[in-house]
């Protein structure tokens, strides 16, 4: 358990350092809180609407490394947590993640694909929203032409999008 907490703290510190201070100004403190630094738990983001919004804003408007780290944080929050999956989608997180898969740097594409895959897992509403946001074609492009890590995450995301969803399988 102690190792898991240490790994989480290191991850939060990397995210906080990855976003340049001028870009965030006040947002860095909010992003750190959103990542659960003050309580040591990333899952606290569900209770922090402002934090979710900061992470989504970083994915939409951050530097390349900021987008990558924020997408990674959203993906980790969505992993194995149905409440976080719904909350991230409600905060408008899907469209910026799709944009990052479409136009981001390789690391950002990989993290965005991972986040989209986690958001789609066992959540029919998110599956439909991700497909409606136009994610399928960019994920297929990432699968066929992306870096190895991006290809793996795109394949997993497409699998989660197709799971129990005939419309997405046909797309």
- Per DSSP E runs of 2 or more residues, the count of β-strands stands at 0
Radius of gyration based on Cα positions: 15 Å
Order of helices and strands: HHHHHHHHHHHH
What would you call the structural class? mainly alpha
Given as residue ranges, the uncertain stretches (5+ residues, pLDDT < 50) are 36-47
Mean pLDDT: 80
Shape: globular
Strand content: under 5%
Tally of individual helices: 12
* Helix content class: over 70%
Distance between the termini: 42 Å
* Major beta sheet summary: none
Short overview:
By secondary structure, the chain is an all-alpha fold. The chain has helices at 2-18, 21-24, 27-34, 49-61, 64-78, 82-90, 94-103, 106-120, 124-132, 136-145, 148-162, 166-170.
Tags for this model:
171 residues; mainly alpha
Could you describe the 3D structure shown?
The protein is mainly α and 171 residues long. Helix content is 76%, strand content 0%. It is built from twelve helices and no strands. Helix 4 (49-61) crosses helix 5 (64-78) and helix 8 runs parallel beside helix 11. The protein starts with a helix and ends with a helix.
């Amino acid at each position: 358990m102690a190792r898991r907490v240490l790994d989480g703290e290191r991850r939060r510190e990397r995210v906080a350092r990855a976003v340049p201070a001028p870009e965030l100004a006040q947002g860095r403190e909010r992003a750190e809180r959103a990542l659960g630094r003050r309580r040591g738990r990333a899952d606290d983001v569900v209770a922090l609407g402002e934090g979710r919004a900061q992470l989504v804003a970083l994915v939409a408007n951050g530097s390349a490394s900021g987008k990558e780290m924020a997408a990674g944080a959203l993906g980790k929050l969505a992993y194995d947590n149905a409440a976080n999956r719904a909350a991230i989608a409600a905060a408008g997180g899907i469209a910026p993640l799709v944009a990052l898969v479409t136009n981001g740097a390789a690391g950002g594409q990989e993290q965005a694909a991972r986040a989209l895959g986690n958001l789609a897992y066992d959540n029919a509403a998110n599956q439909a929203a991700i497909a409606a946001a136009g994610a399928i074609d960019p994920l297929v492009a990432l699968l066929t032409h992306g870096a190895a890590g991006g290809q793996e995450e795109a394949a997993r995301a497409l699998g989660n999008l197709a799971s129990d969803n005939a419309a997405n399988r046909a797309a």
